[in-house]
From TrEMBL:
This is Glycerol-3-phosphate acyltransferase. Pathway: Lipid metabolism; phospholipid metabolism. InterPro entries: G3P_acylTferase_PlsY. It comes from Lactiplantibacillus daoliensis. It is an enzyme of class 2 (transferase). The keyword Lipid biosynthesis applies.
Length: 205
């Protein structure tokens, strides 16, 4: 019964549409109707600016962390990653916005933070480095999850972490299939910093 309750709470936490809430409360904008239409950090950053984007990123990370931290909070012998998966499901198929949602990259990071904070720091460093190098959050997200999976398998040798990481990598690639098509076509959006953005600007002049 405790596990079922934790899964329900995790799903509801994950379902909180941070980008929609911040957009409507403080900017009177529904980000689902602007930019890419996604409710996550990247589209919030693009539509509402870096402050709003950062707030949404932190909120999405924290809801994953809180969801996965439940076993530790309530002293129950359940793997945090397995409970955290319900938060990813909630973020992707939110009950509050018609079972639609984001791509769950930040929420996945939050779950990792609750499970292994050192690995979270490593994964975050990989992610931000790749964002800087490519200026494409989509590319950085997919590449980061791939590298995280390899580290989990070959360095940590934690089979639950490895399985969850591989499953999430496949899921993230699936959620980014439209981005992959745009990357192939050369039309994927860039964030306005990093080496990729500089190369793009240089070509325009």
């Amino acid at each position: 019964m405790e596990i079922i309750l934790m899964l329900i709470v995790a799903y509801l936490l994950g379902s909180i549409p941070s980008g929609v809430i911040i957009g409507k409360l403080f900017f009177h904008t529904d980000i689902r109707q602007a930019g890419s239409g996604n409710i996550g950090t990247t589209n919030t950053y693009r539509v509402l600016g870096p402050v709003a984007g950062t707030i949404v990123m932190v909120m999405d990370i924290l809801k994953g962390t809180l969801a996965a931290a439940q076993p530790a909070i309530f002293h129950l012998p359940v793997n945090a990653l397995l409970i955290g998966l319900a938060a990813i499901l909630g973020h992707t198929f939110s009950i509050f916005i018609g079972f639609k949602g984001g791509k769950a990259v930040a929420t996945s990071a939050g779950i990792l933070l609750a499970y292994n904070w050192e690995f979270f720091l490593i994964a975050s460093a990989i992610m931000f480095t790749l964002v800087y190098l490519t200026s494409m959050v989509s590319v950085a997200s997919m590449a980061s999850l791939t590298l995280v999976s390899l580290i989990a398998i070959f360095y940590y040798q934690d089979w639950i972490l490895s399985i969850v990481a591989v499953v999430l990598t496949i899921f993230i690639f699936y959620r980014h299939r439209a981005n992959i098509a745009r990357i192939k076509a050369g039309t994927e959006s860039l964030v306005h910093f990093g080496l990729g953005w500089r190369r793009y600007q240089a070509k325009q002049h």
